[in-house]
Input
Amino acid sequence: MNLKRNFILILIVIAILASLSGVSAATFSVSESWNSWDIQDFLDSTVDITGLHFSKTLDGVYHNVMLTINRTISITSDVGVVLSGFDGGEHFGVGFEIFADGVSISGLTMTGYNQAILSQGANDFVLSGNNISGNSRAIGVESGNNIVIANNIVNSNEYSGIDVDYSSNVNINNNRLSGNLANSINVDSSSNVNVNGNIVRNNLNDGISVSDSNGVNVVDNVVEDNGGNGISIVSSDTSSNANINANTVKNNQGTGIRVDSYSIVSVTNNLVEDCGENGISVEHSNNVEIRNNNVSRSNNGVGVYSGENVNIVRNNVKSNRNDGIYVDSSKVVIDSNSIENNNGNGISLDYCDNSRITNNYILNNKGHGIYADFANTNRFTKNTLLNNINTGIFIEGNKNILNNNIIANSANGIMVTGRENQVISNNIRNIRNYGIRIYENSNIIRSNVLRNNKFGIYIEGNRNRLSKNSLSTSSNGILIRGALNILSSNVVNSKGIHGIRIFGNSNNLLKNNVKSNRLGVHVFGAKNKIRSTKVVSKRTGIHVKGNSNLISRNRADKNKLHGIEIRGNKNSLSNNRLLKNQKHGIKVVGTSNKLTSNTITKKKNSEIKISGKKNKVNKTKLVK
Output
């Protein structure tokens, strides 16, 4: 012991002489024979030391070295040096406790410490090329500025591998972390944080966790097989500016990438696979861009909850256990995504308003292509929805616009429950049930093309407007249940029983063109108007059962039975053209009906047949 202390005194004298000769810095080496007290005394008493090097002269193991660093210094070691904190097989002590600015530690192997490295209030701290494994806690940084933690191996520690709190300008780059029993990389309450190029595998909790921090970049990391979330960016209030880019995130038991209570966030170019929960989850966050990610085999591929101004653009979302994209937020853009082979819906929207769902390719999902519940004032445009098992687009809400979508090979094409929705210029084909199905009132269905569907359009409600739709069906064309609906300029080619069938009152049919295997237009109700419609059917062109209906200026030619058949009272038939019908031009059963100025083929016993009282026939024109 005296020899070591004399050696220290000699070194001090040498240092003083060196300072007198103009040399102001020195790196000193220690060996395994030095204990922690010797080294600490040397650091505290040597004025000009700038480097401390742990040499390997014997087995390279330094036992229970615990140093307090109060000066700028570079700490290095020979290859094969191990600093061990084990005391009786238990983790013990803090290896390096750093309070000074400008400290760097590189090339060390540290194991067995309660805390291997702890920097508190120190700036310009660099930790590189170390192996910090088998400790209780590995690397801790508190209240520092300009922190670099790079190229370290951090494995099998009982808590976090790297833990940074209340710091700024933090760079955690190119480290390898595995087997840590808490969050592998944990950053809290910091700013300007870069977590880049790390490999983070097989840790018990989150792979990378950043909380309450501003200006966060998590880029080009590999995060796999962790017991919690892969990458988690969360805030107890609202932090801002996070960039999560080009990471590979696989087989994590929680969410692949989670963002909670942040604003101004980009989640881009990530590969996310096989997560226990969602692939990408954004909660309570605003102004978020989710772009160019590949997300597969997770719960929901992408989930957005209680946020605003979220853009989900150009992602590939495939083969997830539930929905491809799930959104419970408003002011969302879902554009140009490829969404395929998910076990639930392609896109699900709950309580979603003022959003735009456009240009998505939605294929082979086992639920609906798009499902929206409590969804208002959204726009669904130019989506392609093919081979989805249930309905192409299913909407429950008001004032939505569905236009220019392509829908094929589903159970139903479009189903809408709500008011003042617009279904315009969609192309719907090869549907097993209804091409379009609408419930409630004041909706617009216009300029849709429906081909090779079993049923065409079903409406249950009032004051709906159907115009300029073109339908070909293997069964009924248009079925309406309600009042005050307007059907105009539709073209219906039905191979079923009815071309257009209506149950209700005060509906208005104008300028429709109808072909049907049995009944062209079939109306049950009162005060309906059928005008300027052209009908060809294999039985009766226009069949009305009810009172006070107006049938005017229609053309019903070459029907196998009657041109027009009326069963009811006080109906008015005027200016209809009814030629070459095989049974009768007009058949009436009822009272007080008026037939005026109709044109009928002249054929004995096949012109007009009336059963009932007080019916009036005026100005009938018979033609050959």
User: Anything to note?
Assistant: Helices lie at 2-20, 36-45. The chain is about 5% helix and 55% strand. The two ends are 134 Å apart (CA to CA).
